[in-house]
Design goal:
Elements: H1 2-20, H2 23-40, H3 50-68, H4 76-81, H5 89-108, H6 111-122, H7 127-134, H8 138-158
Helix pairs in contact: 1-2, 1-3, 2-3, 6-8, 7-8
Length: about 170
Amino acid sequence: MQVLFARHHVRVFRFVLRLVRNEATAEDLISEVFLDVWRQAGKFEGRAAVSTWLMSIARFKALSALRRRPEAELDDEMAEAIEDTSDNPEVALAKKDKSAVLRQCLTALSSEHREIIDLVYYHEKSVEEVAEIVGIPEATVKTRMFYARKKMAELLKAQGVERGWP
């Protein structure tokens, strides 16, 4: 048991620590894991490596601990300390206005450029995928992307929109 512990406790501890993110809890769980191994050593069938068996026991223990972890109660002081990251009404309106301007500028692009921008930014396709969809070489996709972004920047600047959101 000492040899087994010496060989595997560090690896199992690090694995459990990554799951539970608390050193004290991880240490407690490691003790439970090796206690279970001691108790169930006769049940080990050798279908997997010992390290795999240890990791599966450790994973089960860690997930069980996470499930039964009591949620911290939220008091008034903690609630007031939580930062509200949502946009205020002014920022939300500015974003809405910029979205309308952005859509308007997109319609001003040529159909080839609009198609490339749509596929890359709205459908999240790679250059390779766009080339396959449109039926053009990847180099042509990259060139169209370059000129489409350049034209969009010019159109947006003409509308008074600089880079980014407020």
